[in-house]
Fold:
Amino acid sequence: MTDAKQPDAKQPDAKQLAAKQEEAVDPSAPVTGMDYFMKLEYHELLCPVVREFADALMDKRLIGHKCPKCGLIYSPPRGYCPICTVQTTKADEIEIQTHGIVTNYTVVTPVQYYGQEETEPFAKVSLQLDGGGTLSLQDLPGVPVEQVHPGMRVEIVWAPDDERHVDDVTNRSWGSAEGAIRGWKPTGEADADPSEYSDKTF
Ligand SMILES: [Zn+2]
Structure:
């Protein structure tokens, strides 16, 4: 009986590497390439407005910046309104509601690349929050993907206090913060009329 153990895709297999090196039959031939295994870890500092967004998440609050010129609400805050090309500051910060309407969604069918932990299709939704503000890339845990649709009324589900973190919030996370927001759950109310959100679909 042979040992059929497969090499771990995370680690270079030392025996395989050694065998490959021995395959080099002509030591005088020019080197045209070589295998090199490496690991890089990136530590990204959050810009100040995203840091404030992350800190608020830890307090179970959603914040955004309201453009002083056009009134659009950006969450997470960006520190500017790209439409009006004006800066927004702490003075423009507002707290936004933790309930709203699903305006759009995408069903992701996982490709089984190395490190992929998802095996079943899942939905990511965009939300229009009551009172203004939007969030993208949000989850509806426990809701079958075939039941996800625009107009659903949902409310936030915070991660428990002892588990909540913002390690996955980045400067480009668009409101995705799975360590703090577990997802959104249907409120059970009737669907919103399309006129409430059709011009706010992202
Ligand atoms: Zn504006």
The first helix runs from residue 14 to 22.
